[in-house]
Amino acid sequence: MKENALLTVIVPVYNGEKYLEQCVGSIRQQTYENMEILLVDDGSPDRSGEMCDEYAAQDSRIRVIHKENEGQSLARNLAIDQARGQYITFVDCDDWIAPQAYEEMVALMERTGAKIVCGGRYNVSEKTGERTLGLCPQREEVLDCPQMLTRMFTWQGCDSAPCDKIFCRSLFEGVRFPREIGSEDIGVLYKLVIRAQKIAMYPKPYYHYLQRAGSTSYGQVSPRLFHFPLRTETLYEDICAQVPEAIAPARYLRVRSLAYPLLLLDQADAQTRKPYESQMKRCRSHLRRHIWFLLTGPYFGKQERLTDILLAFNWYRGLRRLYHR
Questions:
Q1: Hey, CA dihedral for 281, 282, 285, 291, is it positive or negative?
Q2: Percent of the chain scoring above 90 in pLDDT
Q3: Higher pLDDT, 321 or 157
Q4: Which of 12, 38, 163, 203 is a good FRET partner for 53, with 20 to 30 A between their CA atoms?
């Protein structure tokens, strides 16, 4: 890569009127100036689209793509198709970034020859404004593919989120985010890591992730809960076939993905659980296939291990009060 390579920053925008000024402002204020900023107006019903056009009129680095509403994944994919940069990164329209991040991360990428650089993030509560440290690499280092997959699958300083990373554009050849809403990132990031083979860790929390009601995150009961285990089913098969050194952490992620919707629904009332009975039954069945790994495998904390075993045999709800006591 040449020095001062072009970096494409992709921002899917939907109902971002309240947050867009801070988001776009933080990108425009980057000390790394050789950027193109693609704002993808995903059919926003508020003023987001107009605001994007106003920003483009103020800054020649900004291009705006207007499209009908189809979701974040397809907005990202359209921007990837139109990206001109050698590097690509992503920012959600309600988040923001520290001013020197891209300069330092691109320098790290070019110094190490890595094809992905992974940074850290803060979690920011919209309700209180409190900022807490989220996932963040502990030190600057270069990892190979199995090492990075292990970190991602076990949440050791990083995960499958694309927004705290910079990628070589070539990694996306033939790889796109899936149309279905729910755990889209999990189904894509491991493929990019396998292609990259060399990943640099940037030990600074530069990305500010705003935690707000109504965002595309988990924590409430919906059909999207079960996209997580669907994604890890394919992921686990691919890792077994392509990266045997990462099978154990991939299996850990598979188990956690099966347990998570069960845990959330087992704490809900009967009426809430009823529409999901068949999916819950399938998750328990798949979870029991990993029971020996649950009993003996690495990465599990004591509480995780016990909880997942109870969930696998449908004992958690009945024993929950005793369990927590």
A1: negative
A2: 90
A3: 157
A4: 163
Instruction: Name 252's Cβ contacts closer than 8 Å, sequence gap at least 6.
Output: 153, 154, 297, 298, 299, 300
Name the pTM for this structure.
Answer: 0.94
Q: Are the beta carbons of 115 and 171 closer than 8 angstroms?
A: yes
Q: How confident is the model at residue 323 (pLDDT cuts 50, 70, 90)?
A: low
DSSP state of 60: T
Cβ pair 250, 151 in contact under 8 A: no
Q: 294: which DSSP letter? A: H
User: Could you tell me how far CA 312 lies from the centroid of its own chain?
Assistant: 26
Please give the Cα distance from 315 to 42 (Å, whole number): 44
Q: How many residues does this entry show for the chain?
A: 325
Residues 169 and 271: their CA atoms lie apart, in Å, by 47
Query: CA-CA distance, 325 to 321, in Å (whole number)?
Result: 6
**93, two tokens:** 């329209």
pLDDT at 222 over 60: yes
Give the SS3 label for residue 2: coil
Report residue 182's pLDDT band, with 50, 70 and 90 as the boundaries. confident
Q: Give the three-class secondary structure for 89.
A: strand
Q: How far apart are CA 234 and CA 178, in angstroms?
A: 13
> Contact 257/231 with Cβ under 8 angstroms?
yes
Which residues contact residue 273 at a Cβ distance below 8 angstroms, ignoring those fewer than 6 apart?
265, 266, 280
Say if residue 216's pLDDT is above 50.
no
Amino acid 318: pLDDT: 82
Q: What is the pLDDT of residue 181?
A: 75
**For the chain, give me the number of helices (H) and strands (E)?**
13, 10
**Token pair for 297:** 């495998």
> What is the full DSSP assignment across 239-255?
HHHH-GGGHHHHHHHHH
Is the CB of residue 179 less than 8 Å from the CB of residue 75?
no
